[in-house]
Structures are given as structure tokens and as C-alpha cells.
Write a structure and sequence with these properties.
Order of helices and strands: HEEEEEEEEE
Number of helices: 1
Radius of gyration: 26 Å
Strand content: 15-25%
Distance between the termini: 78 Å
InterPro entries: N_methyl_site, Pilin-like
Strand order of the largest sheet: 4-6-7-8-9
Helix content: 25-40%
Keywords: Membrane, Transmembrane, Transmembrane helix
Shape: elongated
Structural class: alpha+beta
Number of domains: 1
Number of strands: 9
CATH topology: minor pseudopilin epsh fold
CATH superfamily: minor pseudopilin epsh domain
CATH class: Alpha Beta
Pfam families: N_methyl (PF07963)
Protein name: Type IV pilus minor pilin FimU
Amino acid sequence: MKRRISADKGFTLLELLIVLAMLTVLLSLATLQFNRYSRKSSIEAQVKTLHADLLAARSQALFEKRARAVSLTPTGFAAYSSGSATGNPLQRKTLRHRLSLKSDPFVVVFNAAGVSDSADSDAVCTEPAGNEAAADTLVITPTRIETGKRNASAACSSENITIR
């Protein structure tokens, strides 16, 4: 009995092109999802870092029994050794995501008791509004600093923040 050798072994060029097209579509979708996730986690990390830095300045004011100032700009953070935001800062950071502030610079002074000079509550929001981060805002009251989520497309004010 003779065996026939078939010429139908392997893949055709058309089949390979279809598989490559499908892989290209899947990779592009995965890249988009990764970029969204990366931006979300970057915003959350910035908010957590700012929160920790503000709490550290507050703790230093309380333990050293002297006022400490923190200056926030849309692109940066600076902590000072006195209650005045002038001179050389002890710590300076450049922010990856812009902040929305009620004034530029926005200065928070913690007195010797660790209480901020905020009259009511002030919001520090990370731009853009409507991002997917779980926490994109800091709410600063005289005695607390909390993280929160700004309502989509709302102005950066404490009334539009959901505390997390």
C-alpha cells in the first residue's frame, strides 16, 4: 500500500496574516489598558505621597513645638522649617500630575499644636478631573488631612469630594 504525501502541511500565508492581525488587535487593546492602569496608579501614588508628606510636616510641627509651612504649586511641593514659606525648603518635590489649588502657591501652615491654619476645609485635587483613580484629592481641615475622590467633572472644592 502506497502512502500519499499530502501537500497540505503547514499554514498558508493568508492564515498567518489573519493570526498576525488578531494578535495586533489584542496587543493594542492590552497596551491601552496598561496605560490606563499605569496612569491610575500614578495618580493614586502621588496623592498618597502628598498625604504622607503633609502628615510628616504636621507631626514635625507638633513634636518640635514650632510652626511648619508647606507650599503646594500646581507642579510641586515644598516643606519649610518655619511657619513661613520663604527661604530654602527642607524638602522639595516635583509632581508628575498637575494639582488644582484654590491659590498658587497654596500654603498650609501647621502651628505648634499640629493644627493647620485652614479656616474650614480646603481641597487639593489632582488633574484631570474624572480620572479613574480611587483617590485623587486631599481634603485639609484644621485637624485632619484626608484622601478622597472628586466627583466627575466637578470643581475642586470640598463639597465635591467623597472622602475615602
